[in-house]
Amino acid sequence: MSNKRLLVICNAIDDRARSNRKIVTDSPAGTKKVFLMCKALRSVGVDARVISLGRGKTNKDGKYYRSLQANISGVPVYYLPFSTIPFLSQIITLIFATFSVFKYKKYKGKTVVMFYNRMPAYIGTLLMSRLLGFSRVLDLEDGETTHRVLSLIMRFFYDTFCNKGAILACSALKSKVSCRPVLCYYGVNTNCDSADKSWKSEKINFIFSGAILRDTGALLLINVIKVLREKSPAWAREINFIITGAGEEIGGLLDLQSDSKIPLVSVFGRLSKEKYDNVIKNTHVGLSLKKTDGLYSNSTFPSKIVEFSSNNMLVIATRICDVEKTLGHDGALYLDSDCPYDMIRKIKWVVQNKEQSKKIASQGKKNMNLFTDPMISAKEISDFLF
Length: 386
Description:
eight-stranded mixed sheet, Rossmann fold, 13 helices
């Protein structure tokens, strides 16, 4: 038995639990990052486990869901009880989250409790962990952008009581935490061993996934497609746009899908992991379009680029946070502005330079692996925590 145990307090939820609890909102990227991190840590001798709130937006049918034990890719997961009744739901989560770590007090070895972002629901767990003598570390994935007073209160509690410091999604978040030391962690690649994609196919598929919002570049993509349809260049017949995910701007993309003009747009919405994996198998280019002057420009790292590069995809990205640091200047195509014509020039170049695009995608994967190799990342995190 390992003498190192990590308990990750978060709201990661797999497809089966999400479906059983009829939850319609979640964070697939965050869930995947947590599970892959824990899987990698277990491979280097850390007993990494997930304690999940297992909650999200539902139809408020008044149901109560009991706690649930699961095993996701070898990672033990404990989902807390969940009620769909407003207010009662928060009370149940707070109480059960607080005492979720209590059963580990007899564990012989060192226990570290990791908190995924500064969530009010974890405050009781944070204080209980300190009472039990467990070490505490903050995993800060997003900079707070709303509710300033609440953000200040949460920052005080977590930065005061997280005695092991913080793991950060990007280097820009260093200024958002006062606890030390800090470690930047970009995620773990899937080490995809599938054969290289064929760039000789008739169509080049571009994917835009995740949160479909103004600040993640949805409006930029909509404008790009509108311009291409208006100008109708001959090369545009060689591309397709694939949209997965959900968000307030998805309506504009659905409108484009309803029109059969070139280039074609396919909107799949929120997909299960299995269906999403099938989609990206045949996708050549991943789009990471978070606005350089938007809410997320210096507050988070677009983890989708790790997934794109792992799957042998060329990445077209804006220059935010540590994107160029991880993919390298020679491992992606970078947008110099939020202007649709800049992106159109990049798309045209890809269509007319398929072999070179394939080489850049391969280089991007090599560069990204230096930061996201499972064994290297797990060793760095283990050394940081223990």
